[in-house]
Amino acid sequence: MLRAEESIDVSAPLTTVGQLLVLVDPWGEVSIDGSPMGVTPLSAMELDAGPHLLTVANPGYVGWIRHPVEVEAGETYRVNLSFKKSGALRVLVTPWADIEIDGQGVGQTPLGELQVTPGQHEVVLRHPVLGTQTRTIDIVEGGSTRLEVDLR
Questions:
Q1: What is the domain range of residue 48?
Q2: Which of 49, 50, 59, 78 is 20 to 30 A removed from 110 (C-alpha atoms)?
Q3: Is 48 a domain residue?
Q4: Strands, DSSP E only, in the chain?
Q5: pLDDT per residue over 116-144, tens digit each?
């Protein structure tokens, strides 16, 4: 029962949650803000209104998809994502180097063939005596790229 001095704010939203529907081709393991949510296809997920980070992985593809979403109260946010096939990268360095691709360490040469998502990538080669060199490479879906560098 309301007292005479109490009032109801009718401008406030009735709900503070929205829904997120994620569709992934071919499929993906979905996490929201770092919490695993399951494997697609998933029913629409109820989330607090506001910004969230959607991450989708598929072990058959290299890397993952990160997609920021802004969920609005009472609304359904629909996301359609698609994985791209990888391309091969072979890095040959004389005498040797520690390798990073897009800021992620991948190991020390000699390395076998690496599977990398299609597109442009920054490759950093580090040697404790011979210094650091950076190269930009383009990986083509289903293709093979060879990077040869002599640090001497």
A1: 17-82
A2: 59
A3: yes
A4: 17-25, 29-32, 35-39, 45-48, 50-57, 64-71, 76-82, 87-94, 98-101, 104-108, 114-116, 119-127, 131-139, 144-150
A5: 888 899 999 999 999 999 999 999 888 89
Q: Give CA–CA dist 96/75, Å, rounded.
A: 54
- pLDDT for 6 equals 59
Q: How many structural domains are present in the chain?
A: 2
Confidence at residue 120, expressed as pLDDT on a 0 to 100 scale: 92
Question: Considering 34, 64, 82, which residue would you say is the last residue of a domain?
Answer: 82
CA angle 53, 56, 62 (to 5 degrees): 130
Structure tokens at 7: 């009032």
Residue at 22: amino acid letter: V
Does residue 54 share a domain with residue 108? no
Q: Output the six-digit token pair for 32.
A: 């929201």
Domain end position, chosen among 82, 116, 139: 82
Alpha carbon distance 40, 4 (integer Å): 52
pTM as predicted:
0.53
How far is residue 145's CA from residue 150's CA, in Å, rounded to a whole number? 17
Contacts of 144 (CB under 8 A, 6+ apart): 87, 88, 89, 90, 113
